[in-house]
Structures are given as C-alpha cells and as structure tokens.
Amino acid sequence: MASKKETKFNSDNLGDDLRNIHKPELDDERKKRIKNNVMSQLEIPVIRYIRSLVSSLKLDPSRYVLIKEKVFDLLESKRQKRFYISNIFTYHKKFVSAFVLFLIFFGMFSFVNFYSPGVVLAEEFTVLDTYRGDVCVERDGEKLEVEKGMRIYQNDKITTGEDGFASIKFFDDSVSRLDERTRVVINELLKPSDTSIESHVEVSLLEGEMWSRVVNLVEGESSFVVEANDVFTAAQRAAFNVRVFDSSIEIGVFDHMVNVSSSDDNEKGEKIVSGKKAFLNNSKEVEVSEIDKDDKQIAWVRENLDNDRLYLLEVEERLFTARLK
Questions:
Q1: Contact 57/250 with Cβ under 8 angstroms?
Q2: What does pLDDT average to in each consecutive run of 10 residues of the chain (325 residues)?
Q3: Which of 12, 166, 199, 222 could disulfide-link to 131, CB 3.0 to 4.6 Å?
Q4: CA distances (Å), 1 to each of 4, 7, 8, 9, 62, in order?
C-alpha cells in the first residue's frame, strides 16, 4: 500500500502525467461509431432539443429587431471592409465559439430562415398599403377607384398628384413609398412557385421620387429592382431612395447596399453602400459621393427612416407570432 507521502507526490504530478498522455488516434469509421453511439443514447435529437429551448424564450419584438439589425449591420460592415474568413482565426478561441453559437441561435430564431415550412412568411399579394391626396391607379388603360388595401398587379401604373402620396407593400415584404408628382409602372411581380423559391420585383420610376425598403431576400437570385431611364438599382436587403429629375438620376443608400448598373445584368454594376449616393446623367456614368448631414435632415428622408423602423417592427412581430403558432 502506498504511503501518504507517495500519494501526495503522485497527486502533485497528476497534471503533468495527464498532459503527457497522448491523444488516441481514431480512424473515421471509429469516430462515426462513437458518435452514433452517443447520439443513440440521447432521449431527443440535439437539434430538436435546441429548437425546443429556443421556442420557449420570450423576447420583446422591438428589442428583437434592434438586436438583429445590429448583428446584420456588424456583419455587413465587416464584409465591406474585406474582412476575410481567414482573419477570424486570429481571434481568441472563446470569441469564435461564442460567435458560432450566436449564429446558430439566430439561424433558428430569426427571419433569416425565411422559408421555414408551415410559417406565414410574407404577404400573399402586392397591395396599395396606404395613400393620401391625389393618387391614381391605372390598369389596361382604365383608371380604377383607389382604396386602401387594393391589389396591385403587374403592368399597373400608379401616379401621385401634387399633394399625393402612396405606399405599396409587395408580396416579398418589401415596401415602396411614392412622393408627390411621381409615376411608376410595376414591370414584374415574380413570386416563388412550386418550381422556384426565388422572387423578383421590378418597378419603373418614370418621374418623381420613390423610397424602397427591401427587408431580406435570402435566396441567391431573388432581387428587388428599381429601373429609371435604363438604370437599374437592385437590392436584396437595403433602404434606398431613387429620384428622377430632368434627365438625371440620384440614388441614395441609407441601409446596407445596392447594385447600380446601366443594364439588367447586376454583375456588371457598381455597388453603392450605406451612407453613399450615386448620381447619373445622360452618359450613365456613376458618380459616387457621401450622404451629408443635410441630406439626412430632408423631411422625406427622415420620415421614411422613421416609417422603416415601424414597418420592420410590424414585419418582425408578424413573423414572430407566426413562429409561435
């Protein structure tokens, strides 16, 4: 029997002994058998268990939107600064682990995962959400009686008069707001179908000013496009304003990013990020400059930024409620 002194000596060196033990080398087949054995002994699958925990959490919708927006803004800013994935590994392991868990959490508990089965994800139709003043909707050459919530179809023309305003809510949860003396044509409303999960919206701005908020089109080829004088502004997630005056176009980006091109091929365009504005004349050359403080204080801009915040809360609350059903 070992003496107390020997026992104490062995305990003192236990850490060193453990560190000197070589990690067992297992082939892929052995690892797979161990994994299957562990998984088979769990009462419920891990993913389902995590989902059940997440679904039990209660989060105020307004706080949820603010948190999600900050995460997306952070990710977008990192991408704009060319923060490549290899740089991540220079950070501490604990930070990387926490970040991965955070992404898993939001991947299960936010509308990043827009196309989850059994959830009402977006509006069924494109509608005239709100309007005031002189507003006209024309279809097949006939002027229609305007009413809140009326359906808007492909090829419809919407015009606002001198004191007019109109807000169009699209089936993909994007929204466009038309200032006074503005004319638009709905060129395309392509909804997801049985053969495709991608969506495409294209609106032609003939004259005036239109603000668009594209919420979050997660599918690769989905897009929301504003065409003006053969200039195409495309986005999957952004808040931007397009203004047509004389023969010139001004595009201001107030959230995330758009692609501006002189053709419908977005790959050939120029990316305009949040805080920038683009100016194009007859030559279609893109001149990019900063959005200054005066631009942000324009009543039209301030009103739309405020309305965007309220609209995002509305969308989030509806999606959040749908997930709990």
A1: no
A2: 53 69 74 74 61 62 61 59 48 54 50 37 81 97 96 97 96 95 96 76 97 84 93 96 93 96 75 95 90 92 95 83 66
A3: 166
A4: 9, 10, 13, 14, 67
Token pair of 142 as six digits = 């006939």
- Rounded (5°) CA angle 175-180-183: 70
**What was the pLDDT predicted at 116?**
37
> At CB < 8 A and 24+ separation, what contacts does 304-310 make?
304/177, 304/211, 304/213, 304/239, 304/241, 305/239, 305/254, 307/177, 308/213, 308/239, 308/255
Q: Which two tokens stand for residue 197?
A: 């999960």
DSSP states of 238-289: EEEEEEEETTEEEEEEEEEEEEEESSS-GGGSEEEETTEEEEE-TT---EEE
Give the Cα separation of 184 and 115 in Å (integer): 30
* Separation CA 227–CA 243 (nearest Å): 11
- Per-residue pLDDT, 109: 45
Q: CA-to-CA distance for 273 and 259, rounded, in angstroms? A: 9
User: Tokens in use for 264?
Assistant: 């419908």
Residue 318 is predicted with a pLDDT of 78
Place of tokens 């169009």: 168
- pLDDT score recorded for residue 85: 47
Q: What angle do CA 161, 165, 169 make, to 5 degrees?
A: 130
